[in-house]
Amino acid sequence: MNTPNTPANDAAAASGADALPSSGGVPTPSFSPLYQQIKALILQSLQAGEWKPSSAIPSELELAARYKVSQGTVRKAIDELASENLLVRKQGKGTFVATHAERQVQYRFLKLMPDSGDLNSEGPAQRRIIDCKRVRASTEVAKALGLKVGEPVLQVRRVLAFAGIPTILEDLWLPGTPFKGLTAERLDDYNGPMYGLFEAEFGVRMVRADEKIRAVLPTEDQCELLQIKAQTPLLRVERIAYTYNDVPMELRQGLYLTDTHYYHNALS
Known about the structure:
This protein is an alpha+beta fold. The protein contains ten helices and ten strands.
């Protein structure tokens, strides 16, 4: 039986690469390398919850059979997902969906480093939840989260301290529907990172973030919460965090005290 011509098949034929099937409802994006198409299909399965955080995904051979491509094509797609901390390879065990409980993922979004030692030697931050309430999305919040103005969102305020010294003041806004049932008590009771809570209890995994950073001076209430004097310089970090397929799930505005810490970002 002849395989129908599609952009993906034509490109594959020209390059000698594998071709995705054009039937059975499997999407075949055009004008992208085949391994990128496989990566997109794996991402769709991750977003749909087919494979849960910390669970194993099918082997390369099984995925190659599923998508009717070579094992090498699947391996290249998985390599890229692993480099993005979405999958984790474990020698002799297979490939697993990354979780925020993994050490290499746990500190992925925390960029404030101590002047001496590292995050492991410093130990986890002491957290104090100031507020967790349901509000209506402002224009700014709605735009950041892809919502309509006035839709319900959760607003969380907390202080993070290191060695008992308040160092970070954060305000977070989360879409109301995915995080229905989130309370200050649940935030207090969870011992791991906040993104681990979102993942474990609400099925929302943050996979990437965009940040804007600028220097600011604190307001009076911010001075009180961080126990600092007026005119103390702070770093203001505004972050939008996304789950799979670039769906925004969090707007976070953090104020960072940098007299004993510095903001570190590795570029590649």
